[in-house]
């Protein structure tokens, strides 16, 4: 009886003989397919056979070995992502340091002129007056703010309707359309902006006698908000679906209307997840390039007027690094300085958003 139990344990934890021959057969097929000489194939075949015989003899624990292997593989993947992120940050900091050796950080962060095309390394005065990042950052914030003014209310209101008010037929009809909008390439939105949105806005303002630029921040922000809305709506809908049913039923049982339940129970409970969706939406708005190039322009103007032409940080990075450029020139190195500024801004914004999400989670959990 003890022997039978011991054999049963060996079958469940070790590498049995039929496993050995099975793996050996697969090894034979693999080795014969190798494009090596026949001598090396035969040698590998013999080594493979004795290897599996030895593993079977020592009762090799194949389950534990495979589990340890996959744990190490998962850990390697996580470490690989961290290494890539750290490498990117190091490259940005190193190249930015090289740029700040040519241009003063005070001139870069507080100058109001951005015109890297006229910068000349042999004329220090041009370097001082050509690399002011304020117009670029202001244009980035302006367009992202307009986009968020469109995406946040449309995304939240649409998610509330799909979650609490629409029937299954309407939901099954609207969801595929929203998923299609989320998968549309950004260049298509850019063509939509310059063909329809920009002429329409110009016509509306011309009716009141107001002249606006052909490339303006308002048109770009509106189209970008339309592009981000499906992402915001999808994440918010998932957050609202995660609200426990007993909380909703308890609120309704106490006499609350459905709108009061949504306002006082569902939305506060889902707020941490909505903040996470907001982080992704803002990051998408800040990092967008094609729509800005086609509808907002390439010239960085220091203005908060949405009817004027502006530019963003990502557009300037693409402009500076396009074509045959020397990576030792201040013009090219300034792209890394812009990337560093953008990284610091988004990093601080993410820290603030995560802090707010944790505070709200503690409050409503």
Structure description:
The protein has 365 residues and is mostly helical. The chain folds into 2 domains: 2-60; 128-364, MetI-like (MetI-like fold, Orthogonal Bundle), CATH 1.10.3720. 78% of the residues lie in helices and 0% in strands. It is built from 15 helices and no strands. Helix 7 (134-165) runs parallel beside helix 10, helix 7 (134-165) packs antiparallel against helix 12 and helix 14 (313-321) packs antiparallel against helix 15. The protein is globular. Residues 1-15 have low confidence and may be disordered.
Task: Name the features.
mainly alpha; 78% helix; 2 domains; MetI-like fold; 15 helices
- Count of structural domains: 2
Write down the secondary-structure element order: HHHHHHHHHHHHHHH
By DSSP, the count of extended strands is 0
- Helicity, as a percent range: over 70%
**Low-confidence regions:** 1-15
Under the CATH scheme, the architecture of the largest domain is Orthogonal Bundle
Structural class: mainly alpha
Indicate the overall shape: globular
* CATH fold category name of the largest domain: MetI-like fold
């Amino acid at each position: 009886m003890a022997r039978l139990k011991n054999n049963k344990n060996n079958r469940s934890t070790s590498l049995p003989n039929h496993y050995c021959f099975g793996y050996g057969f697969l090894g034979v097929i693999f080795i014969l397919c190798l494009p090596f000489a026949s001598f090396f194939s035969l040698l590998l075949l013999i080594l493979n056979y004795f290897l599996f015989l030895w593993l079977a003899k020592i009762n090799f624990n194949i389950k534990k070995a495979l589990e340890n292997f996959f744990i190490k593989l998962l850990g390697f993947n996580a470490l690989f992502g961290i290494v890539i992120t750290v490498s990117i940050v190091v490259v940005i900091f190193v190249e930015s340091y090289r740029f700040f050796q040519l241009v003063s950080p005070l001139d870069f962060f507080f100058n109001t002129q951005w015109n890297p095309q006229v910068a000349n390394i042999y004329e220090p005065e041009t370097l001082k007056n050509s690399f002011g990042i304020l117009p670029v950052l202001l244009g980035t914030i302006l367009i992202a703010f307009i986009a968020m003014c469109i995406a946040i209310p449309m995304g939240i209101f649409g998610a509330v309707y799909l979650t609490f008010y629409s029937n299954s037929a309407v939901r099954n009809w609207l969801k595929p359309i929203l998923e299609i909008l989320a998968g549309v390439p950004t260049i298509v939105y850019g063509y939509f902006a310059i063909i329809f949105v920009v002429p329409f806005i110009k016509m509306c303002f011309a009716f009141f006698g107001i002249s606006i630029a052909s490339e303006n921040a308002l048109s770009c922000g509106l189209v970008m908000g339309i592009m981000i809305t499906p992402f915001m709506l999808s994440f918010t809908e998932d957050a609202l679906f995660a609200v426990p049913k007993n909380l909703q039923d308890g609120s309704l049982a106490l006499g609350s209307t459905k709108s009061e339940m949504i306002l006082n129970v569902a939305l506060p409970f889902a707020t941490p997840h909505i903040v996470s969706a907001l982080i992704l939406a803002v990051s998408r708005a800040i990092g967008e390039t094609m729509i800005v190039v086609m509808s907002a322009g390439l010239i960085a103007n220091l203005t908060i007027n949405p009817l004027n032409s502006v530019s963003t940080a990502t557009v300037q990075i693409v402009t500076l690094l396009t074509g045959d450029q020397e990576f030792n020139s201040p013009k090219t190195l300034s792209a890394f300085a812009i990337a560093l500024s953008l990284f610091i801004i988004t990093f601080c914004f993410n820290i603030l958003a995560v802090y707010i999400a944790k505070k709200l989670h503690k409050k409503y959990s």
